[in-house]
């Protein structure tokens, strides 16, 4: 049984707690939050001890860093350097700048620890299916993609002190659409160039809406549009791939439905599924990989660095 400490008891911690409870082979052994009342409340709910300083964490196998986005590099690096915890999970994004991303990888390496970035959308069954199809060559030459992330985050969401700030949030590409930035790297590899425009329409310090175009070393071109200003609630996430031998469109909540399938000599797979959580079920799969020590299932350093480069280029 692998023992896990959670650092940060805010909004996303509830998804991690749920996923860990549902996954054999892992358990929460301790929680940490700088706000003692929040740490104490979460600890009481889980019947585990708490600390308010991550340097005091001992006796666990893995720590999951679930703090505000802009704090991730500092927290990950300091945990690697000041504790004996061998594996450090970090919620997206790893950092808000490429410089910080390189630094945190360097510090974790020097400390002899392993960094496990969270990009749970990679474990979506339809994303896995499309990645395998792309890699098989059955689609022929890949031409173009369109990815749209049309979500809602209401004003109450931005009342949380760090949301919407330049220093800790980074904007829609970092805090909401970073999974889809990672997904296009997962599909297409190294980025060559990107251009975009951002909208400051909500009075925030960061972009609430971004439209971008990009080109990859493989020759694929595409667009990514993301917003948190959809009316009332999340509208849809969609991804369309245009290739020499087919067109495929995934859509729905976190890409859970095949909306269009026209592929040479291939029937549409029966893989649509229902999601019962706004975050999807990818965190469960991630913790299953941790329980089974499948470390190679996590994103590569190259993908993470390239993704952060794209987010920084289009967000600041």
What tags apply to this protein structure?
316 residues; alpha/beta; globular; six-stranded parallel beta sheet; seven-stranded mixed beta sheet; Rossmann fold; single chain; Dihydrodipicolinate Reductase, domain 2
Describe this structure in words.
There is one protein chain. The chain is globular. It is an alpha/beta fold. Strands 8-9-10-7-11-12-13 form a seven-stranded mixed β-sheet. A six-stranded parallel β-sheet has the order 3-2-1-4-5-6, with helices on both faces. Helix content is about 30%, strand content about 25%. Helix 1 (about 15-20) packs across helix 8 and helix 3 (about 70-80) packs parallel to helix 4 (about 100-110). The chain has two domains: about 1-115, 3-Layer(aba) Sandwich (Rossmann fold), CATH 3.40.50; about 120-275 and about 295-315, 2-Layer Sandwich (Dihydrodipicolinate Reductase, domain 2).
* Whole-number total of structural domains: 2
Record field, number of beta strands: 13
Principal-axis shape = globular
CATH architecture name of the largest domain = 2-Layer Sandwich
- Remind me, CATH topology of the largest domain? Dihydrodipicolinate Reductase, domain 2
- Beta-strand level of the residues, as a percent range? 25-35%
